Amino acid sequence: MTRVMLLGAAALMMLGSASAADLRLRPQGQALTQAVQQALAGLSTANLPLRLVTDGGPVMTVDSDSGVPFNPDVVARTVGQGAQRRIEINPNGPLPLNAAVQQALAQEFQLEAWTPEAARLRFSGADLNADGTVDLTDLALLMNNLGGTGRGDLNGDSMVDMADVELFSKQYRLP
Question: Which Gene3D superfamilies match (predicted)?
């Protein structure tokens, strides 16, 4: 176990290339796509860039295809059409498009706040016990599963290994 902890501590010291989080969403139209990309750029950091991937996820539109009028105070709503989900932005809502997109994305991706720190905690996967902080408790969970297939598989390769420790090290910050 001492060897494992030493390997973990060494991995925390390593520097490496940044990992990225792919967010699947299908914004409709150039203005909406640009607003989404601008919103994601505001949350991205060098250690965790957020990328818009348009090959899946809910469709995002300005206005309603359902024919149901918006409440004037509503910024956005999510509706289901069969197996498909749609995020509809109120074109006459109380916020300008960029602010409405931020609010809709914060709700869709369950962000506690619209900050790079909140995005890092949400999308890095390193908060293994889901307490809102990446700390030594998460490192202990990762190290206990090293060599196995349990919690701590941060890169999605079905194995908890040194690659996951390296990804964790990019998210962990000394208090």
Answer: Dockerin domain
| Alpha helices in the chain, H assignment, sequence order | 2-13, 30-43, 97-108, 116-123, 136-144, 162-171
Rounding to the nearest 10 degrees, give the CA dihedral for residues 109, 165, 130, 53.
10
Q: Work out the number of other CB atoms within 10 angstroms of the CB of residue 78.
A: 13
pLDDT tens readout for residues 13-30: 333 334 678 888 999 999
SS3 131: coil
The number of residues making up the chain comes to 175
What are the residue ranges of CATH 1.10.1330.10 in the chain? 125-170
Token representation of residue 96:
């300008």
CA distances from 167 to 12, 56, 100, 132 (A): 9, 25, 32, 17
Give the right CATH number for 21-111 from 2.130.10, 3.30.70, 2.40.240, 3.40.50: 3.40.50
Q: pTM of this prediction?
A: 0.67
* CATH number for the domain formed by residue range(s) 125-170: 1.10.1330.10
